[in-house]
Amino acid sequence: MRRDESETKSKTQQKREHQALQALAESLSGLSSNELDHIPLSAALRDAVEEAGRLKRGAFRRQVRYLGQLLALEDSEAIAAALAGLRHGSREETARLHRIEQWRERLISEGNDTLSEFIDSHPDADRQRLGQLTRAARRERDRHDSPRAARLLFAFLRDHVA
What we know:
- The protein is mainly alpha-helical.
- The protein has nine helices and no strands.
- It folds into two domains: about 5-75, Diphtheria Toxin Repressor, domain 2 (Orthogonal Bundle), CATH 1.10.60; about 90-160, PSPTO4464-like domains (Diphtheria Toxin Repressor, domain 2, Orthogonal Bundle), CATH 1.10.60.
């Protein structure tokens, strides 16, 4: 008598795989509609994922189990890879925003040496505009005004920092 593939896996292995699919389903249910656009999902699976995002407690758990069953029929590896790529891109963008924030703080607090350092590393930046924004942000900080110039400085830096 010949066994098929599902019979050769132990029950423990089958359970691990099913739990991994449910964990993937739970991760998908936490994504926004815009983020789901970047994940290769069938229409039925996407509808079920969006429904899970609206449910609470017991209904949510039942929906996650159902999503696990649907994911077993799809290319779950491609879906997991797309989800990982989405998360990795988000980390890179967060790191970029931190670098921009560090530049802004240094420009406001340290002055012309930092301005020259920034221009040396980003030669396409407008030195005059950067200097104006930095001075205005420094004045705002000293006067405890609203940070309008600091926001403009951040936007300027965002356009130039990779």
